[in-house]
Amino acid sequence: MRQAVAAGLVAVAAAASVARAELSYRVVLLKPPVTDDVTSDALARVRGELTAAGFEVSMLPQDAVLDVRTALETVGRELDPIAAFAIVRAATVNTAEIWVCDRIAGKSVIQSVRLDVAGKPGEPSRSVVLAVQAVELLKASLAQYWLASQRRASSSGGAAGGAAAAPAPAAVTAGLGVEAAVGVLDNAGAVSPVWQPIVRASYGSTGGWAGRITVAGLGSDAELRAPEGSAQIRQMFGVIELLRGFRAGTRVQPILSVGGGVYRARVTGVGAPNYDGSQSNTWSALAVAGAGVVVPVVSRVAVVADAQVGITWPDNLIRLNFVDAGRLGRPSLLASAGVLATF
């Protein structure tokens, strides 16, 4: 049991170290190959607005060979941005096009803005008009991220006082999730702990509640040794769980889990000299409860660490040469760490 607890603590520490920096939304601004004062000033104003709202902004040069749509969809992939933005000035008419590409939703929005040659006294300049229209389009296209980013910036002291509180961001477990993990399963008693590959599928709401299906098996065999002989034990289980997440939008999000399912043990026994061995398969009901943490790494990807206690009914008694040698599932501890992707 101590080995499983230690493995769980190591998994939690590793998960926390992977995400040393606070999760933030990143937006890429395209700098056109040829620019002018109006476009340059407008881009600078847009960058300032995004930074003030709590976004991480990267300005990258646009490849002159690529058209605007292709550049927006491909530039800065290694940065994993949620969106890319560009301003395109028309060559012959006094207009500009504002492009916003939502990388998460896979869609682009285009707005045309007319720029007067010379504004009347007291009216905003062309760059201000262009920047205001661009920011409004960004707010509309990235509404959920804008509100969540503003909330994060406000909580860190970066937002001005008196601003209206933004709605809470969605939990990192929201939506459809797929997790690949590895865990250590330890039965209290004489049976040795084993490593298990684990696959999980989940679906959660923005409020932090989620359902999860966990399947584990095909791991190493546990061993049980006694004077009467020895046994090799292959363990598999599947459970349906209810999850509750907390502290949505933060660096480390705790979760609680409870559920039930089935547990299977295949026991291959080898008796002492002059005794025959045997093989048996047993099935039991399984109840689990536990806690863990979800640590966002990049957009829609997180590291998950779990520690759960399981109890089977009936328990699995292992007998070697008619002598009770050990039990499975009363209780057992599963500590795991994995990578969660949400869609």
**How many strand segments?**
16
Domains (count): 2
Give the overall pLDDT as a whole number.
Answer: 80
Proportion in helices: 10-25%
Task: List unreliable stretches of 5+ residues.
Answer: 4-23, 158-168
Report strand order across the widest sheet.
6-7-8-10-11-12-13-16
Q: What distance separates the N and C termini?
A: 36 Å
Q: What is the CATH architecture term of the largest domain? A: Beta Barrel
What is the alpha-carbon Rg in Å?
A: 28 Å
Number of helices: 5
Overall geometry: elongated
Determine the strand fraction and express it as a percent band: over 45%
The biggest sheet amounts to: 8 strands, antiparallel, barrel
Task: Fill in the CATH topology of the largest domain.
Answer: Porin
Instruction: State the name of the first-level CATH class of the largest domain.
Output: Mainly Beta
Sheet/helix structural class: alpha+beta
